């Protein structure tokens, strides 16, 4: 008799500054759903995937999380919020790890202020998904699953 050990795929979602206020802030841009509700739905949709979640408003804590999971997770989905446009340090952290990273944005950043049109992170990421609301996260998870 053969025993097959089945390991869940592990995907880490990392959200940056102000994304703890989803469902409360700027609903016309970010929608009415808080992230915990969305995350629960995402986990139910992909029961064979262990989806971990981390949010911080602090750049260094985001970098520490990337270092912590970047060699063991099967992929990282990151919405670095405003740090997307300013953080060379987060970009360097992404470039230093082995796990593939997909940058996501809830809004279409290219329809917003000019400073949001440039990502410091994109060159270090596998890809970028923007403008599909919370569904941007699902699209990133599906990409990581289907690799």
Automatic annotation (TrEMBL):
Q: Where is the active site?
A: 30, 105
**Gene Ontology biological-process annotations:** amino acid biosynthetic process; aromatic amino acid family biosynthetic process; chorismate biosynthetic process; quinate catabolic process
Q: Which residues bind substrate?
A: 79, 85, 92, 106-107, 116
Q: Which InterPro entries match?
A: DHquinase_II, DHquinase_II_CS, DHquinase_II_sf
Superkingdom is Bacteria
Q: Among its keywords, does the record have Amino-acid biosynthesis?
A: yes
Q: Which reaction does it catalyse?
A: 3-dehydroquinate = 3-dehydroshikimate + H2O
UniProt-listed Enzyme Commission number(s): 4.2.1.10
The site feature described as Transition state stabilizer is recorded at: 25
Per UniProt, what is one Pfam family of this protein?
DHquinase_II
This protein's UniProt keywords = Amino-acid biosynthesis, Aromatic amino acid biosynthesis, Lyase
Assembly, in brief, is:
Homododecamer.
The free-text function statement in the UniProt record for this protein reads: Catalyzes a trans-dehydration via an enolate intermediate.
- Per the similarity annotation, which family is this? Belongs to the type-II 3-dehydroquinase family.
The protein, known as: 3-dehydroquinate dehydratase
Q: What is the lineage of its organism?
A: Bacteria, Pseudomonadati, Bacteroidota, Sphingobacteriia, Sphingobacteriales
Q: Which gene encodes it?
A: aroQ
């Amino acid at each position: 008799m053969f025993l097959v050990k089945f390991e869940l795929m592990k995907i880490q979602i990392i959200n940056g500054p102000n994304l703890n206020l989803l469902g409360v802030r700027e609903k016309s841009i970010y929608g009415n759903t808080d992230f915990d509700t969305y995350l629960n739905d995402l986990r139910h949709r992909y029961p064979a995937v262990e989806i971990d979640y981390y949010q911080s408003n602090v750049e260094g804590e985001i970098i520490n999380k990337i270092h912590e999971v970047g060699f063991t997770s099967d992929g990282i989905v990151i919405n670095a919020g405003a740090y997307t446009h300013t953080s060379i340090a987060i970009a360097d952290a992404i470039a230093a790890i082995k796990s593939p990273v997909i940058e996501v944005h809830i809004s279409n950043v290219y329809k917003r202020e000019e400073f949001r049109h440039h990502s410091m992170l994109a060159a270090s990421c596998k890809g970028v998904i923007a403008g599909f609301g919370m569904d941007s996260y699902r699209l990133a998870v599906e990409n990581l699953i289907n690799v």
